[in-house]
Specification:
Length: 453
Amino acid sequence: MCAGRTVEGAGCVTWWGFSPALDLLNVGPRRPQGKQNILLVGSGDPRHILKTIAGLKDTDTLHVWVVENSLEIVARQLLLLSLALSPQHSMGLHEKTEVFLEVFGNSEIRCQSEQILKRTASQLSSAVTDTLNSSPSPCLDTTMLKFKDRDELDRIFKQWIHPPPCQPMSKLWDSRVRHHLGTRYDSRLGCFDWDLNMKLHQMGCGVISKQQYVRWRETGVAFEMREGLYQTTNHSLLSTRIFNRRGDRLGIRGYWGDIVSSPYLSFGIETDNKALLQIQNGKHTKTAQDVSYHNVQELFQALACRSDVPSNQQGTQERQGQDPSANHRTSSRLPEASQRSPDNELLCLDGVNVTFLPVDALSKLPNKQRFSRLFNTIYCSASLVHQLGPSLRQVTAPDAVLVVELAKYLLELSKDQVKGFAEKVDDITREAGFESANAEKSDVYSTYTLQKM
């Protein structure tokens, strides 16, 4: 999907998905109960993980297995999940929401957010290289990655902490825009307006405002929620791309992600709060930034409710801070996860585990007994649908659901190309042994179940 000039604007690195967050346990004919295993293939960001956790019942347990096609994306997933799992005494709910959205969708961030990014990267670097306790948190598991993969993750995290010399992000972003638009660069504002009004708004994304979308297309800054300077490079959005120059392979570090569809798609175009989607005088009263903030904050509140760490723990410690013996008594009653250093502490979600698999894992899972008939739900992004094959049946539970992202929000594709892609997905899944399960046909996701033998 990302090869060739046709979708060059989507980039070759999927920093965010091209579809809204989805509760993956609520997409099949019926909502499953009890212990669930979900396989995510190329989701690009943790939107589905957060949305699915938020929808869990108290009696449900969830194990999410993540496969990405790049360790740079794995590193960013770990970063975003670590930010989401920051305890309230480390970072308040409002600040956490703002920092998460900045790191998620901004090419440039505030200095304060950069410090949080570096601190989190330092924690992750220590976690993935610690052979005795190789998990960033009890519910984030990197132990199934190869040692060379974990070494590469460590290298990526250290690049975020001590960035190598490179051009400012503003120049890297502008270079991508110039290359993408070519001779249309001088009339780029008209191009941006066309993509917004004739494409995104026609697709039902009217909540994305012109001012914010054009600013993002020009500068890469999607979320600007505080009075501050957004001038510090977000190094988590930089990656190395290999080019062939006169027979030599040359790695160039830059921004190689989406510059057309926008990060608003993940959290900012759908919401259960209909007041955020109200229209007055033909215009939306709120923006995609407002919707994203509301949705992400609600997801973080759901995480806090499912956390094993009491939300009032820090307040108790503060009240007893002048009494060392009281601190000792309180500490002795707290679970081990709660006694870790505040700098390294992350929320532990009751009954939830997220395990990261090697980038080549999808083809190898059917050969491992532990994955036989394991997954109740499988999600595959539009960019990796070509990796689905008949061997997938071996790791799919009998009542499993397969969800495939379609190409609706890849703006550079024509309507015929989008339709053709959906038909190609049907062909691929049919050959893999699945049949359509859509009661109402969706143009964002296609849902399938195993064919009856």
